[in-house]
Design brief:
Methane Monooxygenase Hydroxylase, Chain G, domain 1, 3 domains, 3 strands, globular, 64% helix, disordered C terminus, mainly alpha
């Protein structure tokens, strides 16, 4: 292969990656805005039927170009880029083929939550930025109407949502509507902006308040009314998406998307049963250490009922989490040589939506670095007992999601679509965060049997998802059957478990990526330890997996394998291999 031939494929790939990112920015403007890209168009969402058809057609053209590139001359990262472009484009087409756009997700992250997420991620630097923000705010009612039209088209084709999902989605929107306009998420960028005192920004704040009061809140009211109307117009009593038209294909499409594997639903169910059995044995041992030998149900009842584990207020809970985050920060340099420049803070999830939200979640910092990431912790202390705190912190904050995604934003050597595409790789991103929970043992973060139980409970939570999600959608489990299975194996409140089950019904297969990704990271860690022996260093391994970015699990395997080959061949003798900083 001559030098010219070796250069053609990398150049063609770089051009394709640029075209693909331009396609993403055009079709999914919110992704571009969150990535810090300068877009002067006020449109944040392109969700009409014509938008979806155009997106599918254009994805087909780009995929054809990707298929023409020869992977032979590419290096490991370039091969990863090509594989990921193909995967993302093929995934877009597969999702369109099963009419995902006509049955979009409504809960817990429906269009109302997505719009709030954008507002909470926005920082206003001057009057021009504030004016563009308000223009985009004014476009949100049209976004809601487009999504409603898509659902109506799907409804005509026989697509139905479970009753409980519709009820939960409507209740979330009603909760958002409960806040006065001045205190809504839509006004928060003005409240936290360093430029808030500038006359031009103040003027835009007044304009924004008018948009929120006169246009957006009425649109949200109409949205909630529409969602509630679907309950009376034929909501499904069953939870399984397979019960609807093309349901089996729909579930398999999303299973492959969220796990980034070709696993069969029954294989996932069997894996879940095996993982639950493994964790039950570990939990029995910890219960013994806590003085409840042979009585795991009694230990769970103790954890669920003893008030010592519940913070006295939402502010006390937040402050406890903040203190723990700083304790984690002290250990980070020992295990990680790559540390992001951006910081993060802790905030309470608003009470109005806390009941239907998970105990915690991460909101990454925008890629332009204009505001910190946010570790959101429940406003209801009972949803986040103290024995879960160490696991929650390392999962959502550092070294979990907020650190992982901040580092991705800083990887300037990667194509833009890879730096900013974490949300598309659940198994990798969530698998890393779960791996971090186990890493917390080595970091010395679990100091009591109860906290060790909390870590195991968090992993059990993800393991039972493999059983329950496939149980619901493939085996036809009822809501009560799913709640009962989880209640027997977790100390979480029934309210929390019911919210989880409703989430699995609302987001088919999304919950499957967590434990499958966790197991892959742990497998790669064992492989690295076995291959490198005494040369293994946490900082080296973690740098290798962080440098991969957000990828599919097969691509992650390829990149770590390439790193191991380079490590073992660098100097020959095991003790001569250099260690990355």
């Amino acid at each position: 292969m001559n030098e010219q031939t070796q250069q053609i494929a990398p150049q063609a790939l770089a051009t394709l990656a640029e075209h693909y990112w331009a396609f993403e920015c055009r079709e999914l403007p919110l992704s571009a805005v969150l990535a810090g890209q300068t877009l002067h168009d006020a449109v944040l969402f392109r969700e009409s039927a014509a938008d979806h058809q155009r997106r599918d057609n254009d994805a087909g053209h780009l995929l054809a170009l990707a298929e023409q590139i020869d992977a032979g001359p590419l290096n490991a990262q370039e091969r990863a880029t090509l594989a990921l472009i193909k995967r993302e484009l093929a995934g877009l087409r597969a999702q369109h083929a099963v009419d995902s756009w006509q049955r979009p997700w409504l809960f817990p992250a429906g269009p109302d939550f997505t719009a709030m997420f954008w507002a909470n991620s926005t920082s206003l630097t001057d009057a021009a930025a504030a004016a563009l923000y308000v223009d985009r705010l004014a476009g949100l009612p049209a976004y809601l109407r487009d999504v409603q039209s898509n659902i109506e088209a799907g409804h005509a084709r026989g697509y139905r949502y479970p009753r409980v999902v519709l009820q939960s989605a409507a209740a979330n929107t009603r909760g958002i509507l409960g806040a006065i306009p001045e205190a809504s998420a839509w006004m928060s960028p003005f409240q936290r902006s360093p430029a808030a005192a500038q006359p031009g920004v103040r003027a835009q704040s007044e304009r924004a308040l008018g948009v929120v009061r006169d246009a957006l809140l009425p649109a949200l009211q109409a949205w909630a009314d529409f969602v509630e109307s679907l309950v009376e117009r034929g909501a499904r009593e069953s939870l399984s998406c397979v019960d609807g038209p093309a349901g089996a294909a729909y579930y398999r499409t999303w299973l492959q998307h969220f796990t980034s594997t070709t696993a069969d639903p029954e294989e996932v169910h069997a894996l879940g049963l095996a993982e639950v059995a493994r964790l039950e044995r570990d939990i029995q041992a910890v219960a013994g250490d806590a003085g409840h030998a042979g009585d795991v149900p009694g230990y769970r009842a103790f954890l669920a009922s003893d008030p010592q584990f519940i913070a006295p207020s939402r502010d006390a809970l937040r402050e406890s989490i903040e203190a723990l985050c700083k304790r984690v920060d002290r250990r980070i340099p020992e295990f990680f040589g790559l540390i992001p420049r951006i910081t993060y803070g802790v905030q309470s999830i608003p009470d109005a939506v806390s009941a239907r939200m998970p105990p915690a979640y991460a909101q990454p910092s925008p890629a332009d670095g204009t505001s910190a990431g946010i570790f959101w912790i429940s406003g209801l202390p009972s949803k986040a007992p103290s024995y879960l705190h160490p696991a929650l912190v390392v999962h959502e904050a550092w070294p979990g999601h907020l650190m992982h995604m901040a580092l991705m934003n800083e990887q300037t050597e990667l194509p833009a679509f890879r730096r900013y595409g974490a949300v598309k790789y659940t198994a990798c991103v969530e698998g890393w965060a779960l791996y971090c929970e186990t890493l917390g043992v080595e970091m010395g973060l679990y100091t009591t049997p109860h906290e060790h139980y909390g870590r195991l409970e968090m992993e059990m939570w993800r393991a039972v998802r493999l059983v329950v999600d496939t149980g619901i959608h493939v085996r036809g489990w009822s809501r009560e059957q799913a709640v009962a299975y989880m209640s027997e194996r977790l100390s979480l409140s029934r309210e929390t478990i019911e919210g989880e089950v409703d989430r699995y019904a609302a987001l088919p297969a999304q919950a499957l990526g967590y434990q499958i990704g966790n197991l892959k990271f742990r497998e790669l860690r064992r492989r690295a330890e076995a291959t490198l022996g005494t040369r293994f260093r946490h900082r080296d391994f973690h740098a290798a997996v962080m440098n991969a970015g957000a990828v599919t699990l097969p691509v992650l395997d390829d990149l770590v394998s390439d790193w191991l080959r380079r490590q073992t061949s660098a100097l020959g003798k095991p003790d001569e291999v250099s260690h990355a900083p």
